[in-house]
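lol forgot to send this yesterday, sorry. struct tokens for the thing we talked abt
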């Protein structure tokens, strides 16, 4: 469930204004909110990496691996990959996707479907392994055991089979890219009232955007925005207090 952007902004303003410490404009808030959401989003992957090395916990409500995977799953998506033949290799540039398709933030996997057969996951290997496998008759890739490696934003695939639609003479050749997208930037949009005050423009109107990360992280979102807000309004006490609260919460999550 998403985090309400208006709830976060009003909470931040309430804390800042409690002792007349300063004011955070909507523009400043939107900039900080985008940064904070991305920081927390990226922490999901690092925390998952750490938790996978920790002793397993099968408790329904305390399984941190499962909780992190659920947070990440919100941003998992897929798209058809148009693979062409270049230099005797199948190639696909995942920086160029169809219009309105979210950009690739983290590569997941790529599957190959040959006609009516079940999809096959293309094994991702290093460039050195790729070169080694293609030279050996015993390990040469095939339609049932394809391989790929990534060079920048280019996926290079063997065997070299291009994407093709179904036809009377040839089966359909389809590649499907599974990946993680970035969260949409949160936006607190507004109109200006009769006395110059900012009036929240509800998300339902289509311009304001809620935080997409899990609502479990709402407290951390507010604390981190406060920490950066202290820098904006030049209040070191706010920075220190918010940083201490964030550190305490992070330590608790690692226990």
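and heres what i got for the seq, position by position
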């Amino acid at each position: 469930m998403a985090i309400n952007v208006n709830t976060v902004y009003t909470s931040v303003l309430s804390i800042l204004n409690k002792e007349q410490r300063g004011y955070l404009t909507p523009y400043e808030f939107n900039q900080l909110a985008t940064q904070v959401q991305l920081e927390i989003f990226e922490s999901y992957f690092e925390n998952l990496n750490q938790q996978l090395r920790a002793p397993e916990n099968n408790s329904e409500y305390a399984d941190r691996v499962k909780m992190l995977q659920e947070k990440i799953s919100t941003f998992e998506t897929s798209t058809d990959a148009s693979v062409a033949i270049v230099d005797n290799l199948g190639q696909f540039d995942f920086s160029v996707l169809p219009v309105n398709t979210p950009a690739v933030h983290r590569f997941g996997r790529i599957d190959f479907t040959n006609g009516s057969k079940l999809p096959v996951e293309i094994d991702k290997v290093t460039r050195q392994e790729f070169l080694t496998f293609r030279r050996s008759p015993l390990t040469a890739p095939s339609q049932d055991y394809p391989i790929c490696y990534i060079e920048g934003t280019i996926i290079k695939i063997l065997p070299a089979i291009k994407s093709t639609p179904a036809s009377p003479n040839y089966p359909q050749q389809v590649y499907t890219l599974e990946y993680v997208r970035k969260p949409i930037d949160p936006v607190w949009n507004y109109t200006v009232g009769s006395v110059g005050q900012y009036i929240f423009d509800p998300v339902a109107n289509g311009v304001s955007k809620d935080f997409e990360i899990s609502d479990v992280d709402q407290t951390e979102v507010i604390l981190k925005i406060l920490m950066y807000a202290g820098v904006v309004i030049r209040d070191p006490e706010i920075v220190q207090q918010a940083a201490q609260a964030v550190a305490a919460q992070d330590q608790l999550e690692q226990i």
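The helical segments are 5-17, 26-51, 64-73, 127-135, 218-232, 236-254. anyway ping me if u want another try
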